[in-house]
Amino acid sequence: MDDSLSFTSPLPKETQEQLESAYRQWSALTYTYARHATGQDQSASTITRKVFVEAARAHARTGKPTVLSLPRLLQETRRQLMLLGSRPETAVEADGTEIRARLDRLVASDVIRNMPHVQRRALDLALLDRLTASEIAGSLGQAECEIRRLLAAALFQLRTEMARNE
């Protein structure tokens, strides 16, 4: 996903700053929602860009910064998905809480899925099976200190990615 936002037509400085702030804050979440619905990175990137272009247009028309809020951005994401023929979740709470919780789970799932197998397995054993580091080490044939390092790195990765999406 592209972390920059630029427009062909100039926006007032204040509008551009508000839009860039909203983009930094919510683009990863919007992208994750779109990618989950479409299953395609390119489509999700295109949808994310369209969502923020529409938000900029709405902001220019109304002058209201509320068009840059998460609930409005999620509504626009759903609209863009429907235009593509995708069927996004229909129950979007007004404040976006339900979608936010789903997206948090999707982000965590993506982070875990992209971990090396042994790290992912160690995390599964620790969180789901509630095994201790020494039990995991025995199960995976690794040193206990290596398991502790893998678990710490996995949790750090999850915390970092979750914080980035807040």
Structure in a nutshell:
With 166 residues, the chain is an all-alpha fold.
Short key terms for the protein model shown above:
Arc Repressor Mutant, subunit A; 2 domains; 7 helices; mainly alpha; elongated; 0% strand; 72% helix; 166 residues
| Total separate domains | 2
The main β sheet shows up as: none
Q: Kindly report how far apart the N and C termini lie.
A: 17 Å
Count of helix runs: 7
Percent helix, as a range, is over 70%
Walk me through what this model shows.
72% of the residues lie in helices and 0% in strands. The chain has 2 domains: 13-83, no CATH class; 115-164, Arc Repressor Mutant, subunit A (Orthogonal Bundle). The protein is elongated, with a radius of gyration of 19 Å. With 166 residues, it is mostly helical. Helix 6 (133-140) crosses helix 7 (144-164). The chain has helices spanning 13-38, 41-62, 70-83, 97-113, 117-127, 133-140, 144-164. Mean pLDDT is 81; it is low at 90-95.
Give the helix/strand layout.
Blueprint (H helix, E strand, L loop, with lengths): L12 H26 L2 H22 L7 H14 L13 H17 L3 H11 L5 H8 L3 H21 L2
